[in-house]
Amino acid sequence: MIENKLQTGEAYLNMDMLRFTTAGSVDDGKSTLIGRLLYDSKSIFEDQMEAIEKTSKSSGEEEVNLALLTDGLQAEREQKITIDVAYRYFATPKRKFIIADTPGHTQYTRNMVTGASTADLAIILVDASKGLLTQSRRHAFISSLLRIPHLVVAINKMDLVDYDEKVFDKIVSDFKEFSHKLDISDITFIPISALKGDNVVDKSDNTDWYNGSTLLHHLENVKVDAGENIRDFRLPVQYVIRPNRNFRGFSGQVASGHVRPGDEVKVLPSGLTTKVKEIVTRDGNLEAAFTGDSITLTMEDEIDISRGDMIVRKNNVPTVRNEFEAYICWMNEKAMGLNKQYILQHTSRTVQVFVEDLFYRINVDTLSREQAEKLDLNEIGRVKLKTSLPLFFDPYQINQKTGSFIIIDPASNVTVGAGMIRAGSTVAKESGQTISEKLISPNVIWEPWNIPREEREKRNGHKAKVFWFTGISGAGKSTIARELEKKLWNEGKRTMLLDGDQVRHGLNGDLGFSPKDRAENIRRVGQVARLFFEHGNIVLCTFVSPYVKDREAVKAMFPEETDFIEIHVTCSPDTAKKRDPKGLYKKAEKGEISGLTGFDSEHESPKNPDLIINTDSLSVEEAVNEIYKLFE
Amino acid sequence: MTSLKKHSHLKHLEDEAIYIMREVAAQFDRPVLLFSGGKDSIVMFHLALKAFYPGKVPFPLMHVDTGHNFPETIEFRDQLVEKYGVELIVGSVQESIDNGRVEEETGPDASRNALQTVTLLDTLKKHQVDAALGGGRRDEEKARAKERFFSHRDVFGQWDPKNQRPELWNLYNGRKKPGENFRVFPISNWTEMDVWQYIAQEEIEIPSIYFAHERKVFNRRGVWLADTEFVNKMNDEEVETRTVRFRTIGDATCTGAVESEASNLEDIIQEVASARETERGTRHDDKRSETAMEDRKKQGYF
């Protein structure tokens, strides 16, 4: 047990704080674990203990039910289940802890997302006697989606399996097999018995095969600010303080980065720039303010700034847009519908929002994507949103404060959804850390890139790019791309050309020409292009790719809008037929093949291509020059 | 000036509370700060001074006065109001009784604690308050552990614990229909120890009755109650003089004292660190039943 003595004086003032969330169902022993942590860290008072002893006795239980400590509401105690997220506090001489205790049964996703949104660490409880269940996978997925920096898998009830190392190892390997598909940077596995106290606070004699730390030791020593963005200064303005004509202060909590007097800053949305004059607090002016500080700034120039504006560094600005993509977790019985109007709250800004598109729903148990027309309670999906006014945002994965939002139903005023923005920003980001297919596709193994792309780009002396040539057979895609590649190669650039026929002979030899196979063909090509892109290449892709949807999906694999350049190569059907470089039109006319794009199957033109090349009127050389202009 | 360490947990808690207060000032038209004269509400006022410096605190204080106060508390309140030039709204339980809104309890355990709810709701309504900032903390009591920072109340001022709005990241939804209001708890994440440490660190003044002093008290079911005109003593209850202090300050009829020699903040902190009872352990109002707090909160209690 822990001595409470050190909790006073200077040591207490230097303590830091860890917020963690616990996930697991009633039967996993979650409440017992929390009770154990509170009890063994002497955070339970005598009167609390007396109260639960009384309740335990009256409901005929032999041992004191520590779980009763965390079941706060009358209905919860009667039904012996937890209904709502409850917050618990305890401290050791090292640290103060805030536990968001989330219930494990119905409405699970909603509650866990809520608890996870403020957590530095998540404990996922697995019952050793039952092995890894679907719900543990769900908890791991939500932890990864919400980007909780640390994950602890507490394999509980080890006493029921005789503290068998093999049982522990099996669960660890099962969990890893699943979790390596997710974007989780730090996972720790600990064998425990919450009921008996093994490896919770004190090291257990029953698990001499285990060399790691106890749960509490781990909680006390894990790095707390791992998820903080310390680079990009963002101050959403909450409130303007104007006590008299001579003072105008702009108040808010620093969402990320830091600021000092004299820093050149830009105010969004006006775009006006000025310098920070002072950082004012009641305890005196500060030399600098950091992430999390609640501060008030004064400016050198008198410019108009109000609530909902954002103060950022002049040369490091977030994305300013009113259309973006996001993951949404729906939290209300009334389903999310398309083209319905909601209210969106983001930083200190509140705007109207329309759900323009629902790309898919994620099955949180299998991680597969499912077609969906709506999102029901506890469902997570990827959507496209359009707001009445632009937001100033960064992708959630690089900045949780400026990448998160809530959705409010204007009729009931209730918070109905939680969102994480995934679209790119205009500033350089941590290399390789883009949310893309990796997070949700069980097919893609994700590891951060060893050498960041930015480093490769520096060495190569140019940016990596993807040029996507789409159009019917015979339009001239390959001919133009081949010439363009030679030109770039001769200039010393790193290039790669991916061609339809090439990949269909090898990588995609198993695929045909049905819409489904075409989609898969393009998806694989997109992933290959992404690999060459991350390697720093200018990647030229020539694919008929007739469907808008497939091309959009590829585009979404890249971190920035500007990374992917779509070129529509077009010509009249007669020209294409006349050229017929592969003899396909002749075969189609004879009826030997069907479904030829441009003959009996349609090519969907891009809505907003970066460039249209009409080869009826342009020569190959002219076409190459047109595209080359995009480099300048 | 006391320098706060960048990553100390008290700094985190202070930044969070200031953020919440500024959200309230920005999102609501007529907020008030509920002020009992107790340490939590004093810390709240201190945080409000910080949040809006160099401006004034942009909302009035509201005190729900049971009429059964310790004189030291009222004196402290009036001095604070004068020093900072802040507006004070008083809701009087006596007035509610006189107007027939509530009926005075009888018997030895008679208390005006429960009656406060009606006075509180009436006063909020009278002043068209749309957000009342309170010093409630989640560590105080098990029903409070499920309370939100922004806690929605319907037109009757009632709390519906099973139907609370989810609260994510630091995004607080204060949208409401006419007549509805919010209770907001900026120091939700603080513990009793945090509050005391913060008072010591910031050198915040608190009423004298928090420190050990001699007082005439009598023992009722293990709790030392102050001998005042407001409490009906039973025949076998004997008044004696003891050295005591108060861990919480509320209505004199239900707030018990603890025997203590702690005469300064350092002593108090030592005492809190080794305490084996929660601070509400001295509150008779919570001991009435297992769900006393939850029941009162649903009605619209603080």
Q: Care to give the gist of this entry?
A:
The complex is a heterodimer of chains A (632) and B (302). With 632 residues, chain A is of the alpha/beta class. Chain A has 17 helices and 27 strands.
What does this structure look like?
The complex is a heterodimer of chains A (632) and B (302). Helix content of chain A is 25%, strand content 27%. With 632 residues, chain A is an alpha/beta fold. Chain A folds into 4 domains: 217 residues, Rossmann fold (3-Layer(aba) Sandwich); 80 residues, Translation factors (Elongation Factor Tu (Ef-tu), domain 3); 101 residues, Elongation Factor Tu (Ef-tu), domain 3 (Beta Barrel), CATH 2.40.30.10; 183 residues, P-loop containing nucleotide triphosphate hydrolases (Rossmann fold). The longest helix of chain A is centred in the last third of the chain and has 20 residues. Chain A is globular. Chain B folds into 2 domains: 196 residues, Rossmann fold (3-Layer(aba) Sandwich), CATH 3.40.50; 83 residues, no CATH class. Helix content of chain B is 31%, strand content 16%. Chain B contains 8 helices and 10 strands. In chain B, the strands form 2 sheets. In chain B, strands 3-2-1-4-6-5 form a 6-stranded mixed β-sheet, sandwiched between helices. A 4-stranded antiparallel beta barrel of chain B has the order 7-8-10-9. The N terminus of chain B is likely disordered. The interface between A and B is large, with 79 and 70 residues.
